[in-house]
């Protein structure tokens, strides 16, 4: 795949942006037609159809048949495509973005995550989408419509639906369920819009000069500080300066879950783990399994799989 460009994500799995052919939609401004709604009409439609008066979010099922496909992501795990992500929005929103460089109040975005399966085809190793793991929904809210509702805030409503149960919205707190992984694009309206060329030049221009999470160059000596770049969207090395994750200053010799002022999961707080060379190694190799149920597991499940990188990172952390 000549266009394969390792993009990076907080989850530290390699992510490839499939540069899809967007055909004639690229480069030309969408003409205003009867289906073009203005911003107020978009908001009115969204809040009538997909959000109830208390701020509960419904899955807009028609996305797959009636909306525009903005783009796709392939998420790799050990050279295999594990999941395929497709992102969709109503056509009017796409037109609004192409004219204004941003989404309007009431914009709805759906990301469908499907498990992928692959085998050798006449094109080479090719993967296709199978069953749905989850749907993510974001609904733009410039008015702060639902104060106190924990799935609304920072300009959006944040919804999650599991493949097996599309009728039930499953997010309970967007700060825990969503924000950690979207922190790298905090100043881009919380969106990875640069991956959707169909939105036009304003979206593409948002691509980061330096990927949010960088992979070491093959052959280059591994520096712990460079590997730590993958942690900085959530962890600082300044004492007591907590972010999405706790400060890692002085982590060596510390009992897991014991830094004051950070709200840990019960799993981490109640574990008997003391951080040192061996326990850090096990946590970073198996973020889900070493302390089951800890909150880092679903934000950064991939950990650090490459042995030299992990070793260099741990020496770096032990020195801080
Ligand atoms: C494990 C990290 C992670 C978590 C947790 C997460 N996201 Fe995302 N999300 C991403 C990344 C990275 C992308 C873009 C790349 C991709 O899909 O791999 C993305 C893309 C999206 C998109 C498509 C629009 C865009 O920004 O590109 C939507 C919609 C979305 N997420 C909604 C949510 C909602 C709602 C939640 C919480 C219920 C959530 N996400 C939780 C990492 C995450
Ligand atoms: C997307 C956010 C995120 C990223 C990226 C992340 N972590 Fe975490 N980390 C967390 C959260 C949240 C916790 C708290 C977990 C809990 O309470 O269950 C945590 C906890 C930890 C702890 C336990 C600290 C303590 O005080 O007990 C260590 C060690 C750790 N992370 C190391 C790392 C390292 C090293 C990296 C980079 C390779 C990293 N993390 C990347 C979110 C993240």
Model description:
21% of the residues lie in helices and 22% in strands. Strands 1, 2, 3, 4, 5, 6, 7, 8 and 9 form a nine-stranded antiparallel β-sheet that branches. Strand 5 and strand 6 form a beta hairpin. It is built from ten helices and nine strands. The two termini are 41 Å apart. With 320 residues, it is an alpha+beta fold. The model is unreliable at 1-35 (pLDDT under 50). The chain binds heme C (HEC) (2 copies). One heme C binds at residues 10, 180-181, 230-231, 233-235, 244-246, 248, 251, 256-257, 259, 264-265, 267-268, 275, 280, 283-284, 294-296, 299-300, 304, 313. The site of one heme C has 31 residues, from helix 5, helix 8 and helix 9. It comes from Aquincola tertiaricarbonis. Residues 219-320 form the Cytochrome c domain. Pfam families: Cytochrom_C, Cytochrome_P460. InterPro entries: Cyt_c-like_dom (IPR009056), Cyt_c-like_dom_sf (IPR036909), Cyt_c_1A/1B (IPR002327), Cytochrome_P460 (IPR032033), Cytochrome_P460_sp (IPR038142), Multihaem_cyt_sf (IPR036280).
